[in-house]
Predict the 3D structure of the following.
Amino acid sequence: MDYTQEIITSSLWIARTLALTVIFFSLGIFLLVRLTHWGKQFWMFAGGYLSPKRSIKPLLFFVLIVTLTLFSVRLSLVHSTWYNNMYTALQEFNQTVFWEQMILFCFIAGFSVAAALISYYLNQRFSINWIEWLNTELLEKWMDKRAYYKSQYMGNNLDNPDQRIQQDIQSYVKTTLSLSTGVIDAVTSMISYTILLWGLAGPMTLLGIEIPRAMVYLVFAYVIFTTLIAFWLGKPLIRLNFANEKLNANYRYSLIRVKEYAESIAFYAGEKVEKSRLYKQFRAVIDNMWDIVFRALKFSGFNLVVSQISVVFPLLIQVGRYFEKQIKLGDLMQTLQVFGKLHSNLSFFRNTYDSFAEYKATLDRLTGFHYSVEAAQKQSKTDITDHPTDVIFQHLSVKSPMGKILIKDLNLTLTQGNSLLIQGQSGVGKTTLLRTIAGLWSYAEGKIFCPQHNTLFLSQRPYLPQGNLLTALYYPDTTENVDLAKITRVLEQVQLAHLQDRLEQEQDWSRILSLGEQQRLAFARLLLHKPKVAFLDEASASLDEGMEHAMYRLIREELPNTTIISVGHRSTLVPLHQQQLELHTDGSWVFNPH
């Protein structure tokens, strides 16, 4: 072998093949995106990252990965020629040629290892960068316009967004890259090895008809036939893999809920009900797993049978020519090696069908996430406009997701520093009205004027973020400019002075503090933020009437210019507010100024 000439020939081969690969691969992606549903799904999450308008780096990285893939293909072709020369040297007892081939093998093996390691690094870097970008994209969309909240009330309720953002993104990126490079490797190798096998294959007589280069036709017919059967056997795996991810995620969520509501479950002694639900969900997981096992047995069993037959298939065809001394041992061994490679590459689509089934399920989950977030971000018919001081409702009608009218044609004006108590039976839309004012409810129409940049919402169960008490007190602001003297005074005012020495402690405060203490901590947060408008949704329900009265009196004294809008059932709340809005089940309402 002329090594210098081989280097030049291989370099030219890689360059030509790379150019053709870029053209045909790009055309293939274009056709898949235009003509197939899953192609559109793929491009939904790939188009932005691979767009040269954003950055050319991902495309250059991918071209480099493809170049290394083609380098490995070319190296395998050189390895095939090495097989022929080495076995021919053994047959002819030519030690000189044999040891030359051993030296050549060292170079082939060295280049192969180096290419594999570099390719691994480039693949990982490309994948990690893509995962990082896609995670940012989906997380921003999920948080934008409070879609994380609104999607809970959509008709197609978004299940397990945590899994779709964290797990499915990684699976999508890694499988996309694996399938893409696998297709390029398989197609390039298939063409290259077909040309090699064409030169090695001889004629074959079948039913009195001589077929030239018969082995080439036979391997294609064999693989195409077996691939069609494999697709038929593997098709249900798409549905089963999708169900597997969903059922497992639901089971994990239920386990987390038991941990989250451990105290309530323990007080109710609800272990029997919880276990029943957990076992029911786990049984669904197991049943689906067995369905996958039985389908995989059929699919994998068929593939194994096909692979075993392919081992002796070329030997049975070529051995006659070898015994007749038409070909040498090297030709026979190279034929076996080339046939195996060609069969493997032709079988790529059959062997990776189960991976594609998982990939399609991942695409479906990510697409479902994308559509759900998009639907949640649709502009509401409610016209919410910033107002420097007042809260004004003009012809505001609020509906349920099913279209039932909760509040009809509400017209009301609250001037700065006023207080309003919203009351009514459960389900009439009291909390929903607060959601509408905050821009969280899409099923409403009319006009709302309200300060948009300095409001605070206090719920019945306050949200305490991870971290220390300072973080909880200043949430949603940061703790960069902490006034400890002010915090000490505020904690004393809400009767939480016993927490002053624990401000820096990192604890799960939502479990350590009682619900009453958490609600008083929320009032402390209100005093620290001094909002223009405060929404209190049953924010004092866990306090006794005396403490409730003290907290309302406190915020009226400390925040005289803050507009207070409360939701509550207690009659004791009426004298603590200047105005009252009573909602009725038929959508009507009554306004009572005191």
About this structure: Residues 107 and 309 are 33 Å apart (CA to CA). The two ends are 103 Å apart (CA to CA). The chain has a mean pLDDT of 84.
